[in-house]
Amino acid sequence: MKMFAPRGFLRKLGHALLYLFVIGVFVFIRYDVPPPQRPCIETKIIEHPRDYNQHLASPPPAPDLQAARFSPELVDFDATRKELAPKVEVKDEKGARQVNTAPVLGPRYNHPLHPQHPLSGELVAPVPGLQLGDIGKGADIVIGVPTVKRKDISYLESTLTSLFDKMYDNPISPPDISVKIIVFIGEVDEEFVRRKMTKLNQEFPKQIESKMLEVISVPTDYYPENWADSLHLQFGDPLERTKWRSKQNLDQVFLMMYIYNLNPKYYLMLEDDVIAKQGYADHIMKFAAENESKDWFYLSFCVLGAIGKLFRARNLPSYASFIHTFWNRKPLDWLQMDYVSSQVCSYDEPHQNCVKLLQKHLIAYRPSQFQHQGKVSSLDGKKQLLYDKSFGGRPK
Fold this sequence. Notes:
alpha/beta, 9-stranded mixed beta sheet
């Protein structure tokens, strides 16, 4: 007797097999067949000037200064920037093709007549033009020494000799204090800069090799292209004098922010024509420790202008921003007073009250640890005969 499946059963089995077939086809299309490709779009990545710090975040190792004694192998950040800058192909009048370097986002440094954004561009973490040596990070004191051309004379070498030789009371057994020096050359004349770095490399090789001395120069595009359009002529100062004192402000802004990024505890502001007392670093650190709990703006180790002023490094960005805001208005030593008086003085009180408040925030140490010795000013034709009487003795 033959057995036949019920007709209804066969119908249901056919439906089930058809259902499984449809599901299988869907799964095959979903996972095994590659999706349709989008049209190919050519992508061109262009490096722009704002990427320089990323490329230079890990600078090349310090050069072999012994081998480079008479021709220092400098780290040339200006040349690196030119290599990294975008290249734009143009045609000249004759139709010839040439490639020019063009910063597409405007200048890296901005010092307008009426500043709007202090520390704009790359001033937050400035990169020098040329660099010799590397003092590293984390010193107790970093001394900043800006220097420029002077007519027929240079005090810088004698200043550095004094700073290195008289750093401690007992040089044979110095205290556990880390003091390092940054020389900032505020000139865009590359020949002068290289000549000066070569001389410093010859005279202070041990200090450079031991990471006590670093020499940097200003980038070639740091200063205004047209000074006359960037200055306020006031206080009866002619153009050249106004440019001279305004440039000093710009140099300090760059130097302060460069040193701030080295993470020291203190920044000591000096000039390139001073001599020091024996053991000045010992006295500075001791006096700073004695006043650690006080709300001081700077500790003064010389009565003159911008010489021997010790700042807490944490205050440098705020102070540098203030200087950059009024860089073309007033001299540096005036801005020091303005910065503090704007925070602690009241217009409702007599001026003498303001003077007393300033003395609490601008604390002086006596006797002075630094003496001004330069008689030939960096301003052409100007004689500088000021000296600090509390240092003891007149400079020669």
